[in-house]
Protein 1
Amino acid sequence: MKTADNDKRKEMLSGPENKIHPAEADGMGENIAKKKFSINSWIIENIKKKHCQYYVENSSKGRCHCGYVKEFHSAEALKSEDFLGETWKLQRHVSEAPTDAFGEITFTGARQKVSKFVRVSSDTSPATLYQLMTEYWNLSPPNLLISVTGGAKNFYMKAQLKSMFRRGLIKVAHTTGAWILTGGTNTGVMKHVGTAVQDYTTSTVSKDDKIVTIGIATWGTVHNRQYLVDPEGKFPGHYPLDAESQGRLSCLDINHSHFILVDNGTHGSYGVEIALRSNLEKFISMQPLGKIGVAAEDGGVTIPVVCVVLEGGPGTLDTIYNAMINGTPCVILEGSGRVADVIAQVANLPVSQIRVSVIKKQLKRFFPKEYDTFDEVKIITWTKKIQDIIRMRQLLTVFQIDEEGHNDVDVAILQALLKAPASKTSNSQERQNWARQLELAVGWNRVDIAKSEIFTEDRQWKSSDLHPAMLSALIGDKADFVKLLLENGVCLNEFMNEQTLLELYNHLQPSSLILHKIAKRLKTAKHADRITLGLVSDELHQLLGSFTQPLYPKPAARHRFEIPLSDIHITVQMVHKFDLQITPPVIERTPVKTLEDPARDLFIWAVLQNRRELAEIIWEQCKDCIAAALAASRILKKLAEEEEGDESNDMRGLADHYEKQAIGVFTECYTRDELRAEKLLIRPSKAWGGATCLRLALQANNTSFVAQGGVQSFMTKMWFGELAEDTTIWKVLLCMLFFPLIYTGLITFRRDEEIQKKQKRKEDIDNMKSLAISLAKIRSHFWLNQEQLEQQPLTCLTRLLSFFSCAVVKFYWNIMSYFIFLCLFAYILMMNFQVTPSGWEILLYVWLLSLVLEEIRQLCNDPDGFRFRRKAKNYINELWNKIDVLAILIFITGLACRLTTAGFYVGKIILCFDFIIFCLRLMAIFAVSRTLGPKIIIVKRMMMDMFFFMFLLAVFVLAYGVAKHAILIQNEDRLDWIFRGVVYEPYLTIFGQIPSNIDNVGFDITQCTLNGSDPLMPKCPVLNSDQTPAFPVWLTTTLLCVYLLFANILLLNLLVAMLSYTFQEVQDNTDQIWKFQRYELIKEYHSRPPAPPPLIILSHLFLFLRCLILRKHKQIESSKWHLEEEELLSWEAFMKENFLANQCQTESQSTENMILDTAKKVGVAVDLLESEQGKDSASMVKRLDLLEKQVAKSNIALQWIVNALQTSVLQSSVDAPMLLRLKSTEADELESSQEDRNEKLQQHVNATQLIYPGTTETRFPVPEEYVPWEVKFPLYKPTIYNDSSSRRNTDIVELDKPIAENFRNPVGRTGIEGKGSLYRLGPNKAIDPVITRWKMLGEVSVLEFITVREKEDDLWSFPGGVLQPDEDLPKRLNLILSEKLKERIADMLRTSAKVYEDYVDDCRNTDNAWVETTAFNFHFDRDDVAHEELSRMGSAGSASGMQVQWQEANDQAPLCAYQKDILQIVADLHHIQP
């Protein structure tokens, strides 16, 4: 539930955690009871029922007109004096009372399932019901409302269609978060819906993943409803399913989750719920989409509604008609039967061909039993409604089961919703409509629908149009949509700004670790209820490491963008409505600040939430992709340390994935250009706080990345410095001892090799010039750098300095120095350790001082900007540094003791132990060896195994040692001998030294002391009187055997197995680990002074003086580096694209993908073939239709000739018909379009709408064929309607036949007589001014026209209308025009040509009153003096209470009634094609 998520988020960010004290646990049940009581009281107060309050017996004895028997009436109703003698009427004799049926319902005899229900009055407000469902039933507002209607009785449906309907309905409800509305009973279409929900519930595992299915049924028709009655509510109420005895009533369906039982006070009357259901659907359709959205009147996206129709009778036809009149799209399932099939059969026919005879034929086919009961008026009414339904094709979708490529009900439902709004928008609102469709698709999470229906070739999207959908997709973790939006034009630089980024961070999942970490920081911050980028930056700084700079500036140095918790919600529309809080305050509004690297910021946001697919898509948009991948690996590993379970494993897996991505891109870079790849490796990344890729990899412990060939090659170059990488060690050692050999060519320097290679390249280029190839292209191809070509060779001095500054030379100098130090140390300890220190011993102390100073230098040296605390922590974490510090401290301790007379010998012993530690430190030199280096790692791991093994061994040693010693020796009080007997001797026994004192064979009383007085001899065991040991030999030997069995066989073999397992486990990764740890060694010696100890003390003195006196800092050529960085990033992005392309190609070449690709291609080929066949078939049908008309005309012509010959000479009573002339397709379309445009203005479509506009009056149904007066229509009985308003009641109210004959509609019948809402009988003259101008959109001129609209209207119109007797210009035109424009329009009215002048199809027309309009086109050129005043017409319109807007002249203009056709004529005059 999103509401719960927001509450949790607010709780974490705004205050302390809510925890229940054990003492409060007992009160939780009381709180639940109180909550239930509050719900009950709200329902009783706001929800009513209806009951009969006047019992009047009908023709059935003992039963009232309300349908209930006498026993169901109250005593007041049986003896009511208020209504005595009155005729029973529903509106008067039924009253409301608090409902007595609500709560939870369980179905007896079925699986345990609880549904919620309520009995409501038929007059209940839809707002009250919606509040009940969302607030008290805790239903999340739907993203879609599916109203399923159709046959209320059980009907047969084909198995395939049944399966597709159930599967498609559940799929669309599940993927979109929809509510399903049905009749709620266990019959007909409701039963099919219930079965679909049951199948889904059975197959799903999650209890929270439920389909909301709401049944709205009539209370008076529910069987066994008495089990639901309880004034206090049923929690739960047990409802028995008894379909056999239900009779005319119906049982509720078990698979519905909620029931609304509508009561009008009657019993057995079906259809009571229809009006309330319709009002509820309309109310829901006006609610904003999303938890907190923008209202419909403000242009927001509202909850879409779709009607799905199966089978059905006359009531279903009324439901379809009313739904489509209200703009609700309908999906008809062809093949389900009755009304659905009738509509499906005529859906593709022109309206002119849908005649009464055709409908009769279809009714006879699909209503064989009921057809005889249909009268002519009913059939005519059906025909009229079906014609109106077919006219609204944009709202009608017919699902055909046998249509290939369109066999998914869910796709049909969603396509119906997407195509419906397009017919109601203008071109100026077209992009808003596209955005609405896109947001619906995002809300439904249907990428397939978006690809096929929204992102089509004829739609050109702007990046700004996609931003709300992009934000919604990011928040909803819909990676496929994010990818689709990026592919279709979303620009991250335009989309992302600080405001948007804060919006994303304020929509973190409540369970995310990063939100908890930020919440902890908020508790100590000044604004405890706000998330700022400063807090996010601090948390990222901790995750990435202190060596990085903050990714976002501190709040004091930037404008602060903050979002209060009250604005945290799940919605898209509110993203543009945040207030910017700027520090320091300024007078003018500061624009939203853009981000330096939007892709990086969005990638971090996705990584922090462990959104794998989303992060992968955004990573592909990052510029600095290698650093981004390594930083993501670092962040995820840090977060995984604080997580547990599957979440931690997922984070580690994602971290490994990004390490592999970094490896892939770097390998691609290194393969193409080694030099540039190495620059990428050590380039400080501005986007990631100045960290280098190598530093990020080391901090993230990415051993695989560091171990790859390109990184190791770079590290090898660092190791050898200016020397060539293939220089052998013996040459280096030889030159170290005899440095003049450097100048003999014994060793090669890398610069010499580069100069030789570049010289050779230059010669090749010069040779290629003769082939007339551009030198610039050649240099671009070889990536030449002019500065590198001009490198100077090494001089004698620089060659010497370069040699001795190489890390490898420093290393071997220090190794040689360390060996000499150990030899000197050993010599002092064994041969020259005197009371007064000798010269050699003083040299040893100086040597140690140089080592101490070097360790201090390493501790204080901070090239990475770690600061002292971080640097000290890193220093101590290094194993060899720990050994160094330990050895130095022990040496100082030994030296302090050695210099005193009392501790002289103790000092020597301490120094001897220290010598051991210094020797162990010698193993560090093996780290440089590729062979021995990995073995050190194995030794470290085995030492850990040994450490834990010693605990296990100690248990057996101590157990045996204590028992053995206690048996042999009586009351030993000498600790040294206790240790010897308990620990030392049992430990040596493991290695084969069997003790001789456990039996009597080798006992010698002279080798022990009886009372322990001799400290050099063990104490004798307990003796007998004959001076022999008294202990039982069999017991001691048995203990020894058991001890040896466990210790010597079991434990030692266990140790061998452990070490073997560790070796095998580590061996596979030791190479990578060694390569990873090799960096620290190279880094140490790369920055180490050239001189070895003790001469290094001179280097330390030099460094100290330079730092103290010179204070010389390195200067970076920032401008030059910036240009080079941009070039590197562009090249890296290109290499990334190559890597991703190769990766996709590798994946596509897998067997599974090749099979899927082949199947897809076959499917596309089949679709193309079928589409071509469809086109040919359509063309053939059109030709056959023309041929059939030609034959029919020919027959009539021949019949006329025969009649003429039979009567007289060329005379006949029948006029000669015109033969139909065959025309080409193009000419036919051109001519027919012009004819149709003129004829359409005079056809009756709007004038025959069943409901007269603005009233509840119903027209008599007039099918299209009965509109002309010439066609006889004996059943025609129109109603009479005259508007009673004062201004319009200027003519007679009563209409007699003579007057009716004088005022007859020139086109035909309309279904209603009188004036209607017009001013007078006969023609009502109107003026429709079409005011146009040209407007430049880019390089294209667009024709625009002015439109007006009343606030309560849905459509726009020309600023004209019916003229009053004293008016020259229509009232609405006068209201929006200035005085100058009125005079100008009046002059143009007298001189302008008429665009159209005749009868128009207005919805207000009647049989005796109609509108005749005169349309003028008032066009203003760009250089017209009135052009500026026209642009200001909007302000005049708003002051008059009307909306005024310029619209683009096209076929999507939302004009009312006939005005679209007039606009088409105006467009033709200006030679444009709307």
Protein 2
Amino acid sequence: MAERGARLLLSLLCLTFLYPATTVSRHAEKGTAARPFSPFWFSVEPWDTLAVRGAPALLNCSAHSGDPASEPTAPQARVEWKKDGTFLSLAPDDGRRRVLPDGSLLISSVVHSKHNKPDEGTYQCVATIDSLGTIASRTARLTVAGMPRFSSQPAAASIRLGDSQVLACDVNPDLVPLARWEREREPLELSSRLVQLPNGALVVSNASEADAGLYRCMVENAGPVKTSEEAQLTILPETGEERELEFLVEPLPVTKVVGASLLLPCVVTGYPAPYVRWMVGDKLVEESEGKLELVGGGSLLIYNLTEEDAGVYSCMADITNNTIEAKAELTVQVPPEFLKRPANIYAHESMDIMFQCEVTGSPAPTVKWVKNGDAVIPSDYFKIINEHNLQVLGLVKSDEGFYQCLAENDAGNMQSSAQLIILEHDVALPTPPPPSLTPDTTDHVTPGSRGVANPTGPTPSAPRDVVASLVSTRFIKLTWRPPAEPNGEDLTYSVYFNQEGTNRERILNTSRPGEMQVTIQNLMPDSKYKFRVVAHNKNGLGESSAVLKVATQGEVQVPGPAPNLQAVSTTPTSVTLSWDTPLTGNGDVLTYKVYYMEKGLDLEQDIDAGALSYTLMGLKKFTEYSIRVVAFNKHGPGVSTGDITVTTLSDVPSAPPQNLTVEVHNSKSIMVRWQPPPPGAQNGEITGYKIRYRKGTRKSEAAETTGGTQLFQLIDGLERGTEYTFRVSAITVNGSGPATEWSTAETFESDLDESRVPDIPSSLHVRPLVNSIVVSWTPPENQDMVVRGYTIGYGIGSPHAQTIKVDYKQRYYSIENLDPSSHYVITLKAFNNVGEGIPVYESAITRPQSDPIDPDVDLYELFHAPYTPVPDPTPMLPPVGVQASVLSHDTIKVTWADNSLPKNQKITDARYYTVRWKTNIPANTKLKTANTTNLSHMVTGLKPNTLYEFSVMVTKGRRTSTWSMTAQGTTFETIPSSSPKDVTVVSKELKPRTIIVNWQPPSEANGKITGYIIYYSTDVNAEVHDWVIEPVVGNRLTHQIQELTLDTTYYFKIQARNSKGMGPMSEAVHFRTPKTESSDKMANDQANLPVKPGSNQPPLDHGFGSSHGKPGITGSGDNHILVIVVIISVGAFTIIVVVVGAFLCTRRTTSHQKKKRAASKSSNSSHKYKGNSKDLKPPDLWIHHERLELKPIDKSPEPNPVMTDTPIPRTSQDINPVDPSLDNSLLQRRNSYRESVRNTPSTEPLPPQAQPPCQAEHQHPEPEGSYQDSTATDDEPSASGSYCSAGQPPTAHVRPTHPLKSFAVPANPAAIFESPALPSMPLLTQTGPQLHSVKTASIGTLGRVRPPMSVTVPSAPDVPETSKMLEDVDSVLASLPSCSSLAPRSNPVPFPQSYEPDELTEEMAHLEDLMKDLNAITTA
């Protein structure tokens, strides 16, 4: 016990002595240890994979974080997968694709068909730890091998002893690694004499007797083995006769990745045996073990390719007095490699940092940066330096996370990551670890224990007397005095600065200790900046100085604009400019610079001009240019002139029309179609086209001319069965341009008949599978009838359940999504414009679920089986290598190759190609097609920023191919072509000088919206540059504008922008700010303080006659009091007259009506008092204009009911003069950019709306609870203040407080709309300029009273008593013809049926009390 007491005493002593030091260093000790970097990396990343249809595929990925030794409980990463840039949605019930526990993606059964390829694509693994961030792996391509197909098969051949021969076996390129050869049905062992070429063919060189036999090629896939036809190789004896040298196989250009092996084929035949040698460039290739080897009699095998192996290789074969040579270029690609990986960085807020990333590769890799899995978009604060490095300026806390450098080229892609940690300012920056080039460590650098010693003393106080000693247009020099309490020596200083309106603060440090000045460069002219200075000592950051606001100078010492700028087009490619000397040169003008830009492009070019004129040369023909001129003096560039536009002169077209196609129409006519020349080659307005054609090989030509917009022409009057050639040229006012190549077509021998339906198809065959049936057929035997297509019907037991229509060129179709083990009936009919022909029927039973596909039958064999003959025994091969090259925002060029053409790909026959394309957004878009006789087609008129799919089909005569593989292309972005929509303006609650603008994105954004610009002004007709601008960054759809002028109408427009520029402005909407700031507060006070029962205090009135908030009323107020007294007296007299009249009318009720009322009272008295006291609804006395309405209303049982007393609005409005301070405030805000603050529109209820003005007696009453909307604006007072009878003065909307209860009005939102049926009748004639017609904002003021606005009386509760009461009162009032003029109404007056004259007398007594209170207020 004593020991514990001694320890306690010692502890108290220590605390006593250490307390001062603890107090001084408490802030410094707070978080002085920088938290270490958290390693987060991929231990396994996915790689390109070749998958087989129906087999499983695995993409490996594994992410780890932390150091297992120091952090055994490191958080686990959450792994997701992207396919083609979009996250995969892997539902729990998706058993086919799932993410394994280590993060790998397993596809249990790859799905792949001609029209459905859901698994093929580019995959990326994305790992996330919520407390750290997100990293993305390299991308990997999953390719699915197609069905084995032989485009060429081995054929019987003979070979002489010692000579060479090639046996063809061309299979799908992706299946070549799976191909092998057999001789006599036994596997063939390859050697240096027997070599398999890259395309699958077999080379037999230096032949011997043992090489004779039957050869066949086999492809081993996951399914059945595909076997080619067998071919007999015969060995012949050598005769000794000389044979010419001939290449059996020549080398072709090839591209390979470094590290791979390559076989350059070169097979030569001849006698005597040729000598084959290889050269690369001008050097002879020599064999070397493990690197270069000659195989197969002359082919060159290169192992482990390097960049030095690239070049042009020549295969040369020599015999006596004869040499032949073949060349091919070898390109070696190198995947990206990191020379310097990004390193982890510690930083403080406001600092500038740079992530370095140096990569190499061939071709040169492109680099992009990703932050926490999202692409970094370059901006003012995120900049790409030297094409690879990422610079971040003015750090903020949200910049913290993982940054990745992604390098990619045609050979592959790689990524490397680094972490950015932003420390508190009182934590010193630790020394970063040295960067490493080891791939296993750089991406997850783990720093050592590089802590900073805790500060042991106080920090400096704030620097004193910070001043801007030098202010220029683009730099500011700051000076200051040392702190009053430096608390140390060798102080260093940091200057924090930011441009007004931005929240990113940047930092600039002094270059050496003790220096007390710094120059901040690269500022914007005529801009406001904020500066503050902080001193450092060895203990850390000190106090900050006060903020110094400095504005840079405007660049006023430069020349003014050059006047009288003129441009004249002198030739189709030149424009001559002239201008005068600037009126304000501010010194001698040294030179002029001419800026010109082609319309529609964003690239502006410039050229120097020393005189007052210049001729621009080399321009495009018939093109509009925008031109401006800037004068330069010794201070720099001056003020630019305004842009002028000029169009160069037109010329003849410089290119022929595009996509010429000829289509045989019948035996005597041919349809010719084409597209205009490219826009850049039209050189003027196309006025027409000239079609020249000739018969056969004759030289005489005929010609026809079309109009400028006609892109087709039917050439008729031709001869039957005759070949014609056509070409087309475009015409401008200057003449004809070049013509297209000749295109050939042959007319039919006889015309096809379409006077009746087609005959029955000649055959129909079905092949049932588990979930599908493949249908194949042949056309009708009578091919003189026109067939437009085929109709396929199918169903279980009946062929009429489903119907499918296919093209007339199609010969087979696969019916999908069928039930296993089901009996289907199938019908096929040919149809044309007359109707459908006779059907042919077949039936089939789909296979059981467990029944595998017959290994002996292949789909290819099915479609080409002997029992399914086709009209042409040699069908056309589909085009290959389809590529889509994006040229602009609306143009994509589609190219392809045709394997049925010669190697030079020259078209010599009458074939033509059909290109079809579509986009998947929306999903129901229709396919579009175009015909061409070239191997390319320019598709125009596409939508910007849209993904399109293209495929091609070839047609020759009446033979067609199937559609090719698809190619995809996404058009470029362009500026938005529509404005933001649904623009609305609302007030902010309790802030009458602040409004909130809301809108929706444009319907045609044409790209990703990067921001909006809000324009507002008090003059709708002002020039655009005179409107105030508020920028909105990002895709936000709301913005808050502050410090507006009260009681002022503002007009608002919005413009959207994307990466390509600004779109059109929206239509102007207008909004008027409230009159005063206090009206809102008083209205809210009145609403929040309910009137107590029995109180006679009326609600506050700022209506008619009140000078509150009206700038037009000045003086002592004596005249105003007199006006108020007169108006209130007249109003009181009117109310008394209305009430007395209503009372007299009630007394004159007929005896019949009294009996009826008494009977109703007795019949209802049995249930009138049955309920509790809270069910009794006392009447509500309303005095509204000139009609009397008594309505029952519920009292809220809650202590704070959600009901508010309605403030009394004005019945008229004074004419307010324009506030002279308005222009000044707008000038101060004009052209200023401020950072937008995200605000949520107020949800306060709208003020109730006004009752409609007096209506004629014959008007139909409105139903209960309806709202009659006022059309009056702030400039047009509502007609609700008008009066009905002649001579009756307008009365204020007065609602006195009932002495027995507090009145409440539900705060129902009222819809404001314009109704021409309710014209406004202003009480006071207003003169002034008429406002420009604009669209009114669809949302009114929230939680605010804006005069003039009337009060809408809520409908009575819908209960049986009330309904009965309304019926009785209507019957009473209907019997009073003399009272109709006193109480016109739009709603039935809810007069209680049980009221007797005594009760009315009591109510009148209450009314007299109210009038006394009103007179007391008036006299006061």
